Structure formats: C-alpha cells, structure tokens
Amino acid sequence: MPSTRDWINNPLGVVEGMFAASQSDPNSGWEAKAVEFFKDHLKEKDAPTSVPSLNDVPLHYLKPNSLVKFRCLIQDMFDPEFYMGVYETVDPATKAKVLRCGKYKDVTECGVDFNSRNTVTAERQTFYCVPIPGENPWVKESYAGSSQARVVPSTSYAPTRQKRSYEEDDEMDDMDTQPQKQREPHPGPQSPTEQHGNGDCKRQETEAPSSQTASTSHLDLNFPLPGEKGPSCLVKVYENWDNFKLNDTLEVYGILSVSPALSALADEKDASSSIMDPTESMETAEEQRVHCPPASLVPRLHMLHARPVSHNNPLLPSATLEDNSAFLSSTLSEMASVRAELLTYFTHILLGDALAAEYLILHLISNVYSRRDVLPLGKFTLNLSGCPTASYTERLYQIIQQLVPSSYYLGMSLQNMNQMRLVPKKDYVANRLASGVLQLARHTSLFLDEIQLEQGQLDTTGVRNVTALGNLITWQKVDYDFNYHQMEFPCNINVLIVSEGRSLLPSDCQIHLQSQVTPANMEEYLSSIHMHTQTSSQLNKFRIYLSVARLLDYNISDEMTKSVEDDFVDMRKDDPQSVSAEDLHRMLVVARLLSLSLGQTSLSRDSWLRAKHIDMLRRSRMEQHKCVNGNEP
Amino acid sequence: MSSPTSTPGGCKRGRNTNPATPSSEGPTSPPSQRRRGQDSSTGDLMPMPTSPATDILSPAAPQDTSLFSSPRPSVQPNEVDMSSPLMYGTPMRGTPARQRPDLGSVRKAPQVDLHSEPPSTDGAVASESNAGQRLVIWGTDVNVATCKEKFQRFLQRFIDPTSNEDENAGLDLNEPLYMQKLEEISVVGDPVLSVNCLHVQSFDAELYRQLVCYPQEVIPTFDMAVNELFFERFPDSILEFQIQVRPYNALKTRNMRSLNPEDIDQLITISGMVIRTSQLIPEMQEAFFQCQVCAYSTRVEVDRGRIAEPAVCRHCNTTHSLALVHNRSVFSDKQMVKIQESPEDMPAGQTPHTTIVYAHNDLVDKVQPGDRINITGIYRAVPMRVSPIQSNVKSVYKTHIDAIHFRKTDEKRLHGVDDDADQKLFTEDRVQTLKELAAKPDVYERLSSALAPSIYEHEDIKKGILLQLFGGSRKDFTQTGRGNFRAEVNILLCGDPGTSKSQLLQYVFNLVPRGQYTSGKGSSAVGLTAYVMKDPETRQLVLQTGALVLSDNGICCIDEFDKMSDSTRSVLHEVMEQQTLSIAKAGIICQLNARTAVLAAANPIESQWNPKKTTIENIQLPHTLLSRFDLIFLMLDPQDEAYDRRLAHHLVSLYYQSEEQMEEEFLDMAVLRDYIAYARTYINPRLSEEASQALIEAYVDMRKIGSGRGMVSAYPRQLESLIRLAEAHAKVRFSEKVETIDVEEAKRLHREALKQSATDPRTGFVDIAILTTGMSATARKRKEEAAQALKKLIQAKGKTPAMKYHQLLDDLRGQSETAITKELFDEALRALADEDYLTVTGKTVRLLA
After folding, report:
1. Does A123 contact B at CB distance below 8 Å?
2. Closest by alpha carbon to B672, among B359, B500, B444, B827?
3. Which regions are flagged for Polar residues bias (chain B) (predicted)?
4. What torsion, rounded to 10 degrees, do the Cα atoms B150, B153, B154, B158 define?
5. Fewest Cβ atoms closer than 10 Å to its Cβ: which of A123, A573, B311, B805?
6. What ipTM goes with this model?
7. Which of A114, A429, A467 lies nearest to residue B2, judging by beta carbons?
8. How many CA atoms lie within 13 A of A339 on its CB side?
9. Is the whole model's pTM more than 0.80, yes or no?
C-alpha cells in the first residue's frame, strides 16, 4: 500500500504539498487541514501500529523526517520559541525567490532572505519527554511485539555495532542489581505479528543504543528513576500546548528530526568567536547542553498529533473503554472468576493470608478518581506490616511487577533516604527541572520497602524525603522545589508500604500479615513462591483484570446512600469512640474498590456489608497486635 | 536595512499617512507579517532614495546584525547620520548625551542644530502638500515635531491629584507632576525621568499608542523633548549626561505566558521573579585604534555589533598598521538577567517560563536573584545561526527583552505601608461578577459555605476563617506614637485529633496567594523567622526569610501548634501583636514586617479533649499567647445522632456526586480567590457612627456580664478583635462603611468562639480570664475563700505553732461546706504563705510570728 507508506515515510512532503497548494488561497487554513489529514489516517485500522515507535526501534534504524510515534511522559516544559513559520529563499544563481514552510522543521533551507516581507514568525513550545518511568519489561516487550512497522536498517548502520551491543547488553544485566532484572522466561503470547523474522534480534538492538548512551554519554538525560534506559526526546508542539500538563503521558505522533546541523551548533560554539555574539555567550554551557543536546542522543519530534495515554497496558485496546463495549462486556463477565483466581494466587504469595490478599487486590485497583478541594478521593495506600524478611519483600515486588504496567521499588534504607533525590528540583544553571523519583506517571505502583530501614540518623535531605513521601500519601501531591518557591503538582500514585511493624509513614489502611506457614517451613515456602510461576495466559488475564477494574466507572444509588448513612449512625450509637468520620471515609473507599473488583459499577448491599465485614476483621486483627507491637502512639 | 530584529507590528501602523510603502507591498502578505526593516532594503522603490530614515531604523540591532553582513542599502551612513531627526546629541551646554543601548541605538551622533528644522524631507516622508507638519519617521506614523510637542505639553500640564504612588511622595499633587520631578533632577543630579505610561495614556491616548508601538523612535523623541525643556528651565544645572526618559507601567502589561510574536519590538511590561543575573559584560561602543607607525589615533564606532578596522592609516597611509587599544576604547555595561514567571501567574500543572532580559548601564546590578520585579522594556527576537560557515539557519529566533525600567514589587513590603504594588488586575467583567455576588444578601453565607466544602459543618469556624481571609482595615497611628494597629485576625483551632483541622489549614494554604504552611513539630524559630547564611558564590551574608516573613500580607498556617518548642513559640508573641520581627544576629540587626494572619491548629494534651478542663489546661499553651488569638474555636466530635446522620450524608455524597453536581452547589475556588483579593485591595471600610456606638455597647455589655460576679470578662484586646471582625465582615459585603449588622455578626462570632473556648467548666459561664490569665475568676475566688477559711480554722485552733498537713486538710474538709480538693488546699496554703502568715515545710505547717 504505497499511499500509507508515503504519509509515514515522507510526512513533510504531505505538509509541503498542502502548503504549496494553499499559496493561491490565503484563507485555506492549510495548517488545520494538514493536522486533520494525519489524524484521519491514524484513525484507520492498524494505522497506529504501522508507525514505527521510538520506544522500541533504535534511533539509527529510523528514517529521518519520517513519521514516528513515542509513548512518553512530559518531564519538563521549556520556554516557547519563535520560529520562521514561512520564509523565502533566494537562489544565489538565478535570484529566484521561493516561499517555503518552516513548520515541523528545525533548520531552514539555504539562502534565507531575512529581509523578505513574506516571513511569518510563529510560536511553538518545546517539551522534554522521557519514556514512561518504571514501565515494566513485559509492557515494553508486548508493545514492541505488536508493532507492525517494518524497520529496515539504514545503510549507514555498521554491522560491527551489533556485536558490541550484545556484550554491552550483558554487562548491563550483570551490573543491574535491581529486582527488575528478572525477565520473563519467554516473550509471552504476543500478537501474531511477532513472527516477523527479526523479532528477537530486534529487541536486543532496541537496547543497544541506550546502553551506549548510559556508558559513554556525559549527558544526563534526566530520567526520573535511576537505571532507566531508552530515548528521551524534545517534542515541539505547534498548537494547544496549554492543554498539556507536566507528567502527562502521551503517545506523540510526529516527524522525527535528527539533523546533524543541530548538534553542530553546540560544538562549533566554542570554536567560533562567542565574543562577537553576546546573546550566545551568555548562556551557560550546561544550559546549552540541556536545551540543544546532540540530535543523535535526543532526537527532535515535531508533533502532528498526540493521544493522551489513559493506561499503558498493551493488552487493553488503546481506545477508551466506553468506545470499546465489546471488549468491556467480555471482560466484565469474566471479572468475578478472574478475581477468585487472583485471590488464590495472592493468598498463596502472602503466606496463606486471604484477608491480606483481598486488601492487596483492592490496593492495586485503587485510583484517585476525583479531588474535592484539597482532598483526593479514591486513594488507598496500603501498609502491609508483619512481613518476614527482606528477601520476601523483594519477591513480592517481582510478582507485582509482573502484573502492573509500571512500578518502582524504593528501598527505604537510611542511605537511600539521605541521598536520593525524591522531589524534582529546578536547576537554574541548566534551566531545567532536574527530575526525582517521585516524578511518576499516574497509576504507577510505588513499592516502599521499609524493612530496609535501620536505626540511624536522617539528615536534612532524609527528613525532607520522608516528608515528601508523607505528603504524597496523604494528599497525593508532590511539592516540586523551585528554589525560591515550591509548586504543587497533583499525582495519582499507588503507594504500597511493606514493613515489620506499623510504618512510620501515614497510610489509609494497615493490615498485619498473618502467616499460615510455620517458621520452620518459611525458607522452603519462600523458594517455592519463586518457583511458582503462572502460565503466561493466566498472567495476562490478571493484567487485564487489574487495569480494567481501575478504569471502570462507579456510582452509589440514593437507596444505598440512605442505608449507608443509617449504618453509620447505628455504628456510632453503639460505640461512638470506635467509629469516626475517617473510618467512614475508608469504608466507602473499600466498598467502592470491592464493587469494582467484582466488576460491579454500583454499590450493592452485599458489597457494603462485605466491606464492613472485612474492615472489621482487619481492625480486630489490629487490636490483637496493638499490645504486641508497642509501636502505637 | 537588514535588521531582522525590527520585526512586525506593521498592521497597526498608520500606513495611509505614508504613501511610500504600499507600492512595494505584495498582495499576498498580510500587513502583520511585514517587517519594518525590510522596507528599507527595497529602498530603491521609494520616492526618496537617499532617505536617511535608514539610520533611524539602524539602531534596531547594533549587536546582532553582525550576523548578516549583507550590503547596506545604497545610502552612505555618514551623510545620513548628520541629518537624522532623532540625532539629538546636541551638547546642551556641555552635557554629553549618553548612549541608550536599551533602545538598541548607537547614538554617538554628529551634532546637529535641532532648532533649525532639518532638511525638510529627511528622515520623514512628506505626505500630501503640507510638508513640515506631516513628517513622520519612516515606517511609523510618528511625527517627531508633534510628538515632541505633545510630550512637552504632557510634562508641563499633567496633574494627577489622586496619585498615591510612593514615588510621588512629597510632591505637590496639584502642580504638574513631572515638572516637579524635573526640578528634583536639577537638584539631585540623577538624569533619569521615569514616566508612568498610564499618565501618558490618560493625557493623550494617541501619544501612548505611539509610545507602545514604536518605543525605539518615540523614546528618543521624548528624551529630546525633555532635555530641551529642562535646559530651558534650569540653564545652570550640570548633569552627568542628558536626561533619559524611562517609561514604565505600559498598560500592555502581560504575564510572560501571553507574549507572542505580535509583541516583538513593542514596549511591554511584564512581571516576574529574577532567578539569575550574569556577570557584568562590557560591551564595546567605540573602538580606539592607533597607528603603529606614526601613532596617529582614530576612533571607530560600533556599527551593528561590528567594528570596521580601518585598513589604511589616514595620516601616513600605511596599510594594516592600526592596532586596537583596549583601554582607550569606550565600553558600556551590560548584564543578562533571567526572570521567571511568578508562581501566581501560572496555570496549574505547568512549569514556569523564563525570559532573558538585558540590563544596560545603570540598570546593571539593580536587581538580585529572588527579587520580584516588573520590567518595562522592548521585546526582541534574533534569529539563530547554525554555523557561521554554512548559511542555513536554525529556524528559531532567540528572544529577549531590552530593559528600560525595573520596578521591584516586593521592595515596599520591607519598607512601606501600602501594598498596592501587588495589586491584581481584574477585568471589567470579573469586577462586575464580583460586585453582583457582593450585592446578594446572603453573600456571607455563600462564601463561607464555599470554603472547604469537603469539610463538614463547622459553619462558625468557616465564617471565622472567612473573616480572617478578608482581614480588618489597616490603621496607622505612627504619628501618635502607637505604631500600626494589627489588621490581621488570628485564629486558633483546637480539638480532637481527626476532626479535619489539618485539612482546613491545607485548604486555606492553597487558597491564599501568599500562604505558608508549617508544622509545629518540624519548624524551628529560625525557620519561622529569618536566618543568615553565606551565599556560596559571592561569600556575602544573605538574610533568608522564614515562613512568617514570607507570608507577610498572607496567612501563615501552623499545624500542631502545641508541639512547638517554647523558644519557637516565643517569636510568635511579637509577630502576633506588633506584626514585626526583630532580628539581631551575625551583624544584621533589623526589623522585618510580618503582617501575617496566623491560623493555628492544636491538639489537646491528652489526645482527647477533656470537657472537664479549661482550654488552657487542655492544650497547655501559655495564656499570653492565647490572648493574641482573636478567635479560638473548638472542633469537637459532637457525638449526637442527628449530627452523625448529616455527617454520613455529607461524606457519602462526597463519594458519589459527580463533579458537575458539586460545582453547581458551591462557588468556584477561583471566584472566591478573586473575591478576596478584590476586597483586600479595594475595600477599606471605616467605622460608621452607629457602628461605633454598637461596638461601645457591645464592649460595655461584655464587661458587665462579668462584673456582676466580680470578674472581668473583656479586655481592650477583645474590643480590638471585635473591631477587626466587624471590618472584615464589612469587606465581605464590599461596603466602605462598617455598619451595625457587621458589629452584630462580629459580636455573635466572638461570643460563639468564647462560648466554646472560654467557658469555665466549673460554672458554665463564659469567662475571658481563662484566656487572659490562665485561670478562671471563679477558681480564683474559690481559692481566696479557701484561704480565708483555712486562716479562720488555724486562728480558731489557738496557739499551736506547728500543725500536721494532713490533719489540717481533714479539719478544713470537715468544716467547709464545699468540697476541698488537695489542689485547692495547697493553693490556699500557698496564698497564706504569700501573706507571710505561715510556712510549709514538708508535712508540717508552721505559723509565723
């Protein structure tokens, strides 16, 4: 299908064609038409998958000035820039003047006539985008597998590279001590397009350039999480940039620009006389490096269309659930059964504690669905206390990692708390927002391992980090540090705290793990958890289940409202001290999550009673531990 | 002309007065895309080929045109400069003109007699027959002579009787303002005249439009005009250089976000915060060359950022013999300043933008990082080049602002009293909606229910906080020696844990623009006040301000007030009454303003409120501090069924109502914020006659309540609180007058708060003494009675010099009708000991004398 290839391989040709056609008619609104054109093409079936993605195709495989897509998070927003929207070039030989379009390009053609009256100055905005932080390997692989874009290695690609990339890949793996090292034993059931021939080797090469970046580059690509890989990108936005917010996740469709001329700028700066041009001498070297990094490392992407990513689970259709009723109804009908399976699975993992397993499911599908002034609604931070050993929590994380699209493991060791930069901070020298661990996309699971915390002193950074975590949990917001002031960014992160006793951080709900396993058998049991891998089809079922449950709508009927109110009043009547407004808040959230976990979109009497019941079980368990623990205030 | 910096804006230009251009205008280019500079490059199409107007335009970009060494138009620069109408470099009795790099001009101009009309067609295009008067500067509709005349008229006539700017302090408001300023210049010798653009606009809108659209041409004209006027009036004054006009406060004030290509080369005023300043950059203005052979020297001016080195010595005709002598060249100062959007102007969820500003000459080092400033300047854009060798250009312009005027917005917070500097600008529509809202009879209830809708009930507390947000009127008694009266309302919330106190605090902190949130547990005295630190770069000592100073004119929310250490709390004494902060450390002694309202939350000491104890006993705060709170509220869990039901309903609806339903019910947070900001800046209610009477009555009543039982139930501090609350309530109504209803509500609220916090648990009466002395008057009375009874008992016992403690207690208990606790007994003993009647040693009581 040559036409398809054309708009993917040479989108600038399309744009220029429209521009040229518009010259006779000044009011044609060609710019809107061009954007419409691409949007329409992307709506076609399979169209999105045939566009190569920067996430899984190495940059040197992609054709410059072709249409690519990029699944990313807006990490920083730079200042808007003015560029030549339309300009005129003069051929030095013939003196012929040609009008050209400067949109979607970084560099102009030769022989610009700066005095031309036809020059139009226009404005665009630059975003610094990074791949979604904490995206788990299974998501990446699945996305890469479903891509239909055939990537042809460019001729300039030296085959010797491949060899090196293998070695480096291995090295990286060895160095990587993070638990995410554990990969799926086999790629899993992916769409039939996987049989592409070069599927396997493609994936390895995906990582080649990034590992090079990590080892050779002096450039800090500013990923929120340490040890992240992948390309980052400067995305140029041409319209409605006010609609985008920091930390939004997008799928950007745009024109890739890797003009070497861009990198030339930085190098020649020092050589050429900077004295002559005071405007350029005044930018610091750091700022230059950040705002104009070499295009080979940080490509430019001129946005044609961006689709907000509501979830990054490759197993779900990318469209919203409402638009895909067939998928929705088929999953909904299965939900109860999948939930039962998942509950068994979690019970097994949580040392036979079914109640804790129930709460873990509720936690994993929680979501801040709304905010009432400062109060975030729907958050459900779980504190899983009574975890046996450190190795157990790491295993637990590995299992969660297999189930959720993005997650991050933060060991709360003293050293980590005192040294890590959790909160993003504005670096005024380089004029950018230096990222921190808490700059995460929504729905990311943050796993806080408090077992790693030992006695000792927290220094200033440590205290600030703990406060930031506390704020994140209570208000679901992070105060970014802008040196002269702080700025609040709302977030939507699922925080799971595992600890021995009650956590020092606040949480919405604490549950003490009651192990059904005798300590003697613990070792053996733990290793058996590790061995017990689910079949991948079952894993996929779980993955779909967790993502869908989180995206469902929910409401409470008037009738139920009434009965909940009555219940609350009754409970207060019996024992006013034990039930407070806070408890009602929590029970309402539990009831909501419980209904959703069963695929019910409205609260039923049964769910409410069940919510009350499990909350009571949990509280009675806490009562028992109160005396044992002594950690209570 | 090849300057790309002088860009668009052509659409607004009065083209019809200028017949020269339309001929060369392509039909396809909308006027807005036309750039002024390019017109001159096609100068051969002009009726006046040797138009010297090029030179008026050439100043546009002295430093950046170096990039484009395109041949200049066929005009010889030297001839041109001679006759430019803007070359006003006439030495006014020996006063040299100073270059204005801020306008981008290189203006070491050949001298020209300004009074003899320049050759009539030069620099201007004659339109129609009437030459002299219809001359305009090329590319604009500015006629130099008219413009000059208008401005002189403005200077001579402009009077602003209502002015309340601090710059005009000490000037006679009924005399022409700027003439007085000129007089000041002649005395002080600082040749800078700052002109408020709003004044120009109110005087002559057309002149203002020209100023904003063509600052590069109009400001030199203004300079010219003002110098003529000045030296005419003060012929004997000696200035360092000629007066320069610095316009500020251009109405096109915008925030950084709204700058767009239309603004290039126009006069703009934006606000922001300085985040970085560069080192001083010397920029060469004039190069000095000396011949190595014959020592002949010559000077070359910078022409568009370039210096043309003379190839041949004019004296001895040796080629390439001239060498640059740096220390005899002329440089001007330049500094790069980076400013960032102030946090208030930013939409949520976005990062702040930054802009580069160039400061020239005396504006260098005027601002420091961290300053909040308003900058008036000219917006510029310069294209970037990828490499000097290749000719393709990065299709991006670099933008910056050439600063003409800096105005610090936070300066006055340190010195002055009025705070109109951070006035928020409201659009007409907005003001209209706000006024409509204010006209509603139930506006007070509406606003208070809009406050923190997610928190259930506590209506009176919300009302109290609402009044705190508005604050009272500021009164100044410095003349009579009492200093400022506090206008801010302080509120303390105490109560059981988990009654959403923190949530209320968070809400308030999010609502007010200058709010600070601290927790008593984590903050030290230093963090609240100010500390001195050494700047790592400059090794200077810098005063860093803490939460209380930062929330000047705002609200400081302090959570866990009871957990604060005593030393920390002690700094609050000064802040909460005098509204200042005195610092004496590390060689810095100063008093900072901290006119902040304090909203504090405290938990009872026993984690659960004990209704049998007084407020003081429950929260263990010193009463000296408590009496500084205007309102002290208890947030208790009421524990009754009806309340529970309403609470449950509220919470459940929180979870199931959709966003839209909620919005219908409550006011938007933004409206509330604007409403408060508007009332705070524009409404300053004063007490009416009836209101004062009502206040007096209220106060007398309050004192009467207690006097019947021999206690004082009100102190002047309570009267002041009442006044403040009444004023705040008047502000809520947008009323300039405090009326009786305001006093009524203030009384009611005050009583409510007292009822909650100052009720003596023993008697059930409201007793202000609990808050002011830490002990209720009844308790004191009982103590005295016990002491008297004890004395009688001892006297009755006759001549026993020593008694057993327990014996005495039992005797007293047996005798007294009321219950005597051990504490009471101890206090009675202590009271008698104070009278030197007896002493207590261990378990024996001895009589003295």
Report:
1. yes
2. B444
3. 63-77
4. -160
5. B311
6. 0.74
7. A114
8. 24
9. no
